[in-house]
From TrEMBL:
InterPro entries referenced in this protein's UniProt entry, alphabetically: Nucleotide-diphossugar_trans (IPR029044)
Originating species: Ficedula albicollis (Collared flycatcher)
GO molecular function: glycosyltransferase activity
Protein name per Swiss-Prot or TrEMBL: UDP-GlcNAc:betaGal beta-1,3-N-acetylglucosaminyltransferase like 1
Length: 201
């Protein structure tokens, strides 16, 4: 079964498909460029996965048990900081999506949406036309001020209701956490995932 990497590759804390389940030809492995053996704290599986996609690779699912993975507390995965993975995810989003957009809306005027905004390059921050949300308190306030900015005056980004927002969207709302309310709201807009919006949560 073919899995469309383009629409969900920016989610979670690493590759869309966990590394112990991967397999590929030796030729493809060398074509992609092997793993980054930069040492402790390098998310080599995430970097390899991104490079695989950059070089035109895809993901197929095989419905058979091909490997037994043994987890242990001393695994190197624990040395990779969440912030390191976040930074790689943001750069990949910028390279693969935001570089081709002239403007976009961040769906979530809360903690995750603001964190994404602050993590973007200055050029991509300028493309953010608004935050959108359903929280009346955030909408009533009307804007988000980027206090950490060195610009004067400090950037103020409007906050509006999702129905009043303009696509495309980068969505920073976790799926399956609102009893279906978020998914219903998104569905009312009749948008196409991978074109009008991407999930980054």
């Amino acid at each position: 079964m073919w899995l469309d990497w383009a629409v969900r590759v920016f989610t979670s804390h690493g590759p869309t498909v966990i590394m112990p389940t991967w397999f590929c030809s030796r030729e493809w492995f060398f074509h992609v460029g092997r793993f980054d053996e930069g040492g402790k704290g390098v998310p080599e599986d995430l970097l390899f996965f991104y490079e695989h996609l950059q070089k035109g690779g895809g993901v197929f699912r095989v419905d058979h048990c091909l490997l037994l993975y043994r987890y242990h507390p001393q695994a190197a995965t624990h040395s990779v900081l969440e912030g390191t993975i976040w930074n790689h995810r943001v750069r990949f989003l910028e390279d693969r999506v935001l570089s081709s957009w002239t403007s976009f809306t961040i769906w979530n005027a809360g903690k995750q949406g603001k964190k994404l905004y602050r993590s973007l390059s200055p050029a991509n921050q300028k493309k953010v036309t608004a935050f959108c949300d359903v929280d009346e308190k955030k909408i009533t306030k009307g804007f988000y001020t980027y206090e950490e900015s060195e610009e004067r005056p400090k950037p103020k980004i409007p906050v509006c209701h999702f129905r009043d927002a303009t696509p495309p969207f980068v969505i920073c709302v976790k799926l399956d956490l609102t009893g279906g309310a978020f998914e219903t709201n998104l569905g009312t807009l009749n948008l196409k995932e991978g074109m009008d919006y991407y999930h980054f949560n």
